[in-house]
Amino acid sequence: MIKAILIFNNHGKPRLSKFYEHYSEDTEQQIIRETFHLVSKRDENVCNFLEGGMLIGGSENKLIYRHYATLYFVFCVDSSESGLGILDLIQVFVETLDKCFENVCELDLIFHVDKVHNILAEMVMGGMVLETNMNEIITQVDAQNKMEKSEAGIAGAPARAVSAVKNMNLPEMPRNINIGDISIKVPNLPSFK
Amino acid sequence: MALKIVKGSIDRMFDKNLQDLVRGIRNHKEDEAKYISTCIDEIKQELKQDNIAVKANAVCKLTYLQMLGYDVSWAAFNIVEVMSSSKFTYKRIGYLAASQCFHESTDVIMLTTNQIRKDLSSPNQYDTGVALTGLSCFVTPDLARDLANDIMTLMSHTKPYIRKKAVLIMYKVFLKYPESLRPAFPRLKEKLEDPDPGVQSAAVNVICELARRNPKNYLSLAPLFFKLMTSSTNNWVLIKIIKLFGALTPLEPRLGKKLIEPLTNLIHSTSAMSLLYECVNTVIAVLISLSSGMPNHSASIQVSFSRHAHTFSLKYLGLLAMSKILKTHPKSVQSHKDLILQCLDDKDESIRLRALDLLYGMVSKKNLMEIVKKLMLHVDKAEGTTYRDELLTKIIDICSQSNYQYISILVELTRLEGTRHGHLIASQMLDVAIRVKAIRAFAVAQMATLLDNAHLLTGNTQRNGICEVLYAAAWICGEFSEHLEEPMATLEAMLRPKVATLPGHIQAVYVQNAAKLFATVLRGQEGAPADSTVAQETSQLLIDRLPLFVQSSNLEVQERASCILQLVKYIQKLQQKDVEVAEEVTALFAGELNPVAPKAQKKVPVPEGLDLDVWINEPPSGSESEDEGRKSKGKAVFAKDESRHTKPRYTEVDEKELAKRREVRKAEQANNPFYIKASPSSQKVYQDGVGVEHIPVVQIDLSVPLKVPDQYVKLEEERRERNKADKKKKKDKKKREKGEKGRRRRGDSGPESEEDITPAHMVDIVTEEMPEWIDLRFISPLILLSLSLAPHLQVCDIQGNLQDGSQVVVSVIFENKCDSFIKSMEFNVLDSLNSKLQRPDGAGPHDGLIVPFQLPPGISNEARFIFSVQNIVMPQKLKGTLTFIVKTDDSSTHEKLDFKLHFTCTSYLITTPCYSDAYSKLLESGDLKGCSLKLEGVNQPFHHLLARICFHHHFSVVERIDSCASMYSRSIQGHHMCLLVKTADQTVSIDAKCDEPGLLGNVLDEIKLTFSQC
């Protein structure tokens, strides 16, 4: 079982948090802080496994993480999950984000956390891995987005226009915080067919 | 109206959406909290509007705020509203918000049941999907109960997208509502073979999670999983299955053998590291469970693996796996020593610690020095106190396995500064020096140098624990001073003024041992024909230096120093009169400390007639006991004396007796579940009952050892003569094989089971986990056998044959029911006071008897064992063990089978014919005492009834008139037993007479039992 999925940036700002067990909001923030503290002090070229987060489950669970440019993707899992399997899963997740957002960067995650949640929901459901095939995930996500668009129809057009105008006025919107080296050397990209 | 809608829609354009909120927060970095609180106020306003789009937008923003740590549970009802929107867009927002902040104690959840049910059956698959996803996060026991059926229906939905979600969510439903597992399981199992790989994967996921909680229930699915493993191409599924097999193999060794080949194939074919790793892990688990192992296999796998591990940053996992291999195949790990040593250089501390653990396990006599040298290098380099301390403890642990050069390593360790392990090093030094005579000379030399360089160690005494080492050094030099080359120099070193800066307890040791050294020095100087002035100078040295210690603030130092000072002064006086004092001075410290092994106490036999469990005096009650305790502490000197007095008595016990006692102890340990080594299963601490039953055995061996056998022989001879006239008759006994052991363990069994619990029941766990082989049979209760290893061996029948005297012959039929060869069977019974297994001359009272045949698969054979029984009045049970070796093609395992022999009173009766005139005389004699029994509801013909008594209870019919019969039997010890059986209207009344009422009562009870069972 996956206990929690966290994405935060190099400064520990949460970009997505999904807990598959209930915690109070305060505890959740504490867990995020603690996880960030544990993960951020590790060197780049050490292993991706960490034991001993105090808050989620303790010794039973492990933290498995990957660091992409400005973002940490952390999965907290119990012993039933294969560590390397989860690493591959993180890779699939990031690649899927990359496809869905067309060159994903931190800003995409900041402004569209709801979309990230929807993508994640097609991969992991209630702490269990639902789908590992990237194409399948993208197909389902696209189909749902299409439905959303058709529902908005003409009524949605003004809102979209306004939103576009708002975005245009934004000088601080450069897409320079690219997640960048998304193809960090992963031993086996075609891991899940 | 239309205007209002348009207006609302235009208003809405300028409402903040999620992006605006995020942007706003980013623009208000200084007063974020304030900004957010105004946003929350806005959201509250928005939630009050009727427009569902506005509400959905508000809820969407709340979801974001929730991530930032704001409590949004106050909006739970609005979230439910948004969830129930008919538009997918809003529904999805609602469900997402619910999945983020709903939990079991959210009360509005109960309002959602119908909405969710409606969504589950929606024609739009994404409505259903979104509902399932949301539900998976906030399912409660109530929801699980109410919706279980709906979800089960969805498991066979036409769309695979729904099917896989429905399958997956079932696990959550099982967790919250376990009753749903039983009806849903067949369908879940069916989904393992679903045509869609996604659904298949979901089913594998769910079953793996279930199996993790209780693996043995899922053994039956192994073939299905095996098929999936060889056919599936989905790496995730493969990983899950292989992990599951890893958990199953310890329960079912045969599975392991089958797995090896496909796993090896996968290892060679896959490119996915994750899959490779899980394969290797499971292979290791398999090899461990097979225990016999295939070293070549493991080695080759491992080589390929460690190569990978080296190239990728997976050392950690590699090391973890190796430590598993190490436990069973140390040799194959040995070859990777260099690799592991390299890991010590790794930057990652968790890798270094793993490598250290591994090295510790790898140490053997051959490579000890090499490893320790490497480790010593690392100690110098090591940074970070935790790691270095760990390193140090490991070195000391490793070294304590071997004495060679240990001392020099310890001395080397003392050079390290800032370690906290001074105590450990000191105690190790003392330990080695005392324990190993051969090394003392070397140790003393090293310690002398250490004392000489003491100033190097004491630089910063207070925070440096290392000066503890000096404590050991001083003591070793003093105690084994005869090995010193220059005792004078050492003595000098020990009396330097600098010593006074050391901690008190070390100074005390210094002073005391200076005296010892002094004695040695004196002897050396007086022995030589040198001038006496040298000796006097030595005394003078002590007299000069000791006052320093006499002034010490530490009481012990002060006391010892002044005592020794006076002694030396006195010696000096004598020396001035040219009296040779060396002998007397050395006598002060005569006697050598000998190491005592921790087990040594056990080797001291308890003297005859001494029962340690019996109170010598009645235990004093209440407050008195405290006083006793204090007194006995005060009289420690006396206690010592006593033990000395008793010592000579131990030596009277001859070798044979000692051997016997050892056997007793071994047997006791083997049968005692608290001893771990007996069998792996006996590790479970089980019932107290066993321990209690064992007590009589111990008592026999303490109180009636060598004398008793003679008595027994006499008794037996007498009886044999007495019974010579008796005819030999065979008697049958039946036995019941004990099945249903698993269930018994859980406690829903008949009254017998309580007594019948033996350590074997712990082995039963194994059989319980292999349900298809348990052979449940129930034959008859007379002789009871509890079989723990049904698949291998079955004792099929036991017959008790009575011969003369007090002997009982038990025939045991051994049947091999497994498909392996069984050999080296050894039959052993734990004798009781009353019944003993007859063993050949020269065998100890706890030796087993070797069964004189081997059993190929499916073959049965009979062996006879003779028991001698003293008292036949009571039925009895004997515990026994059958050990044997199961030989398969490539391995042989040692197995053990515990059983119980049940001697009923009936089995002591011999069918003896008797004539009616002799019978009536017997009855008239008046020696017999009567007893009667009434059986109701017996509806069988009278002659059947008689036949039954004759057959089961060894009686013969003397006379029969209509529905009335007289019967007779006789026990092996010559007790007469007469029965008068009458029957009327399904009621049988038995009047019985016997010269031994106890025996009669028991036989009647057994007759009653026979009839109650038919």
Automatic annotation (TrEMBL), chain A:
Which controlled-vocabulary keywords does the entry list? Cytoplasmic vesicle, Golgi apparatus, Membrane, Protein transport, Transport
User: Which Gene Ontology cellular component terms are annotated?
Assistant: AP-3 adaptor complex; cytoplasmic vesicle membrane; Golgi apparatus
Q: Which GO terms describe its biological process?
A: Golgi to vacuole transport; intracellular protein transport
Q: Which residues cross the membrane?
A: none
CDD domains, per the entry = AP3_sigma
AP complex mu/sigma subunit domain residues: 1-147
- Pfam families in the cross-refs: Clat_adaptor_s (PF01217)
Cell location: Cytoplasmic vesicle membrane; Golgi apparatus
InterPro entries of this UniProt entry? Answer: AP_complex_ssu (IPR016635), AP_mu_sigma_su (IPR022775), APS3 (IPR027155), Clathrin_sm-chain_CS (IPR000804), Longin-like_dom_sf (IPR011012)
Is Transferase one of the keywords? no
Membrane topology of the entry? Peripheral membrane protein
Query: Please, which domain of life does this record's source organism belong to?
Result: Eukaryota
What is this protein for, i.e. what is its function? Answer: Part of the AP-3 complex, an adaptor-related complex which is not clathrin-associated. The complex is associated with the Golgi region as well as more peripheral structures. It facilitates the budding of vesicles from the Golgi membrane and may be directly involved in trafficking to lysosomes. In concert with the BLOC-1 complex, AP-3 is required to target cargos into vesicles assembled at cell bodies for delivery into neurites and nerve terminals.
Q: According to its UniProt record, which protein family does this protein belong to?
A: Belongs to the adaptor complexes small subunit family.
Instruction: State what protein this is by name.
Output: AP-3 complex subunit sigma-1
Q: Which organism is it from?
A: Oncorhynchus mykiss
Automatic annotation (TrEMBL), chain B:
Q: Where in the cell is it found?
A: Endomembrane system
Membrane topology summary: Peripheral membrane protein
Q: Where is the composition biased (Basic residues)?
A: 725-746
Q: Which residues form a coiled coil?
A: none
Q: Where is the composition biased (Basic and acidic residues)?
A: 638-656
- Give the matching SUPFAM superfamilies: ARM repeat
Q: Which UniProt keywords apply?
A: Membrane, Protein transport, Repeat, Transport
Domain of life the protein comes from: Eukaryota
Question: What Gene Ontology cellular component terms go with this record?
Answer: AP-3 adaptor complex; axon cytoplasm; endosome membrane; presynaptic endosome; terminal bouton
Q: What GO biological process term is on the record, naming one?
A: synaptic vesicle membrane organization
AP-3 complex subunit delta domain segment(s): 653-777
Question: Which stretches does the entry tag as region Disordered?
Answer: 613-656, 718-761
One Pfam family from the UniProt entry?
Mu_AP3
Name the InterPro entries for this protein. AP3_complex_dsu (IPR017105), AP3D_dom_metazoa (IPR010474), ARM-like (IPR011989), ARM-type_fold (IPR016024), Clathrin/coatomer_adapt-like_N (IPR002553), Mu_AP3 (IPR058898)
Which parts pass through the membrane?
A: none
Q: Which family does it belong to?
A: Belongs to the adaptor complexes large subunit family.
Checking PANTHER family in the record gives: AP-3 COMPLEX SUBUNIT DELTA-1, DELTA ADAPTIN-RELATED
Indicate what this protein is called per its UniProt record: Adaptor related protein complex 3 subunit delta 1
Q: Which organism is it from?
A: Oncorhynchus mykiss (Rainbow trout)
